[in-house]
Structure formats: structure tokens, C-alpha cells
Amino acid sequence: xxxxxxxxxxxxxxxxxxxxxxxxxxxxxxxxxxxxxxxxxxxxxxxxxxxxxxxxxxxxxxxxxxxxxxxxxxxxxxxxxxxxxxxxxxxxxxxxxxxxxxxxxxxxxxxxxxxxxxxxxxxxxxxxxxxxxxxxxxxxxxxxxxxxxxxxxxxxxxxxxxxxxxxxxxxxxxxxxxxxxxxxxxxxxxxxxxxxxxxxxxxxxxxxxxxxxxxxxxxxxxxxxxxxxxxxxxxxxxxxxxxxxxxxxxxxxxxxxxxxxxxxxxxxxxxxxxxxxxxxxxxxxxxx
Length: 288
Known about the structure:
CATH architecture: 4-Layer Sandwich
Structural class: alpha/beta
Largest sheet: 6 strands, mixed
Strand order of the largest sheet: 1-16-2-3-4-5
Number of strands: 16
Distance between the termini: 78 Å
CATH topology: Purple Acid Phosphatase, chain A, domain 2
Number of helices: 6
Number of domains: 1
CATH class: Alpha Beta
């Protein structure tokens, strides 16, 4: 009996130690972003933009990465970006947004900051107040429109579309709303400039391919938030179980899509086996 009691005690202590170790590891992992680097080669990229570096920030939600986002700001600063792209869910309903404003204050002098809205922003009642303050920090808001960057005689287009949650309609499915937004940015210019599109939703990849977008930066998925070894993401909203578009690059024709696993959490306040991610994208002129 004493031997059985000793075994039970040992097993209980082992289980407690494993649980504690897993909790500490998860806490640390949730607050130290990974940096994933991509080199995007394209013969269509103007020579003048060869080597342009973009840092992508996505799905911050209410998360904090260091005091006043110091850990995140330092990570962005070390990359010396030419452009910073925020691909939605910077703000959350029922939060004052100060964690996001801390980030914007810290990055506004590092590079131009472009921002598109995600599905969580669509649920914020006083969103105009948030966006006005963000623009006071120099953020360039892309709501179904484009801006054009010039170097010498070369032009590169940065475009952005709202999340389809901003235009809920029983008559029009999400794909239809995305198509309408893409048509608006297509009409921005009659010329076929190399285009970087910021769009929160990655699952509309085929539509981006139809529009022959060169590079799409998206988020939304949190990489599934919970990931298992050899399996990956378990679930993503709007895609369901074992989603196809959860993270990483996809390529078809001339279109490449990069899906950030994002930085924060949504309804469940932690991530598992899935550290926050900062994407660093370098555009490279492909020689013929």
C-alpha cells in the first residue's frame, strides 16, 4: 500500500511539474514574437524598388508585448523597414485601444505605416474616433483605395481593402463583397503597376489571383491560435477545421500571398505552440 501511495505521489508531482512547465513555456512563448523572413522575387518589380523591406504587423488585438509594446517596437526598429503594413484587427471592441496607440507612437518615425481594417474593427461602435487618432500618429488608412509610391520614373502601388464584415448583406456573399472592393482598387489606375495588397482575409486567395495582384499581405487566422506538431492549425473562423489558409506563403500565377500568424489573441487569451509572428518581406527584382 505504501509503495502504491509513493507511486501516486510521484505521478502527481510529475504531472504538476509538467503542467507548470507547460504554463511557463506558453506564457513566455506568447510574449516573444517570432520573426519570419520572406524574399519575394518578381520580374515585374521595378528595379528602383529592388530590396524594399516591408514589416507586416497583424492581429494585435488587446495584446501587450513588453511595457508600452517595447519588445514589439524594438523588433520592428531592428529591421529598419522601408514600409510598415498593418493588416487588420489592430483594435478590439470593448477595449480603449491604448496598447495599439502605444505601438503606433513607437513606430510612426520608423517608416510610413499603412493600415487596413479587420473584422474586429467592424464591431467597434466608436471606430471613427480610433481611426482619427491613428491618423494623427501618421497612419495611412487604406479603405478600398490605393496609394502610389514613386522612385524616379518607377511606380509601385500599395492598395488596401476593408474586411467584408463592414458590408454585411444577405443578398451578397462575402466573396461578392470582396470582388466589389477589389474592383474599386482596380479602377484606381489604368496601368498595370506592381501591386502590394493589404487584405485582412486570406481565404479569398483565388479572387486575388483573378485580379492578378502581385503580393497580398493578410492575417486574421492567428495561425489557428492552437497548433499541433505535424498537424498545424486546428481551426480558423470562416474556414473551419484544419484550414487551408492558416499561415505562410501561397503562390499561383504571378500572385503570392503571405498570411501572418499575427501577434495577439481573440476570444481565448493565449496561444499554444504558436508564438506571435512578425513578418519581414523583402522585394527582390528577378533578373530575366
